[in-house]
Amino acid sequence: MAEPVRVRRLTDQEGQKLQQIVRRGSTSTVRYRRAMMLLASAGGNRVPVIARLVQADEDTVRDVIHRFNEIGLACLDPRWAGGRPRLLNRDDEDFVVQTATTRPARLGQPFTRWSIRKLAVYLRKVHGRAIRIGREALRTLLSRRGVTFQRTKTWKESTDPDRDAKLDRIEHVLERFPGRTFAFDEFGPLGIRPTGGSCWAVRGRPDRVPATYHRTHGVTYFHGCYSIGDDTL
Question: Which end of the chain is less crowded, N or C, counting CB atoms within 10 A of the terminal residue's CB?
């Protein structure tokens, strides 16, 4: 009958190290469980008992014990395999980020913003450069590259052809007569205003789109700047 598998006699340093790992519990899960296996075996427990204790397969416990008897505490560190090779290179990742931060309408898509599902489907159908990537992998890639889903910002630009001349006059008044001027703003109906949407954009740099609304009646936006008591203005 074969002898039961158990660890060799621990040295003082090995015992202290294993107890330190188990008591602190601040290391990786793999190291913690393997340290428990070794201490339990050193305490006289059989493999089936240790397997139930750490919720592992009996063959796994035997492998850890054999490895410890061969190379010592180095067996605590897992030997991870290389894993599956990357499916996307750097250029592909850059293309994904560029696509996510581009408005769908500019790419001929009939919607205003990307969802993870829509973006993944579009990337698979790009002519000449089909990119197959799952939703979670796509979400992780965007997060790693600093692209988040956020609100857009809007602004409205003046179409007044004399805008610059008026601004120059206002600045002239403010600089020449700072003690005798006052300025005020009058805003018109506030119900008609652009509403920010949402999109994928680089973190801290939201996409900005121009406001496209028009007001056909009422006071829109009025700036006043006056100087009191000077007939030259």
Answer: N
